[in-house]
Amino acid sequence: MMHKQNVLCCCEYFNNKGERSHLMGFCCDCEALDESFDKLITCKPIQSDSCSRIMDTVADRLRLPWCDGYGARKLDPDVLLAALLLLTTLFLAAQGWVATLVVFGLLPFFLIGLFALIIACCYGSNLTLTTICHPKLMWGTILLPDNCNDVYGDIQKEVDPRLLGL
Fold this sequence. Notes:
Blueprint: E1 12-14, E2 20-22, H1 31-41, H2 50-61, E3 63-64, E4 73-74, H3 77-94, H4 97-132, E5 134-138, E6 142-147, H5 155-158, H6 161-164
Antiparallel strand pairs: 1-2, 3-4, 5-6
């Protein structure tokens, strides 16, 4: 039998640290996100493990309210994505066989368009970086950014000191 102090409401849960938390605090108090954003704004290097810490926090807080005294149930992001894709596919199939044929007929063009968009974004970012940085010629044809030291050289002068907390 559960003790009265361990009974959780439908929106409460015990987080990774063993602390009692509430679903309403989903977007609050993510130290890794705050630290990474502060370092990004002040042009300081971001730690390599901060992305995994942010994803661990999101995975811990992704929960479904459940009324059994044990609190909110943890949802696996992979299962949630698969369920969302399944529901979307079933919705499109329920629109009729013509809509299904149109959607699946256009799917290759959609995927080709996504691939072209990724290439265009990579090319655009490469053009931007080679414009603001010193470029390096590779294989006699391709320009790659080589040295971007002077891009952020005067960042302290350019950014409002109130934003940096000075």
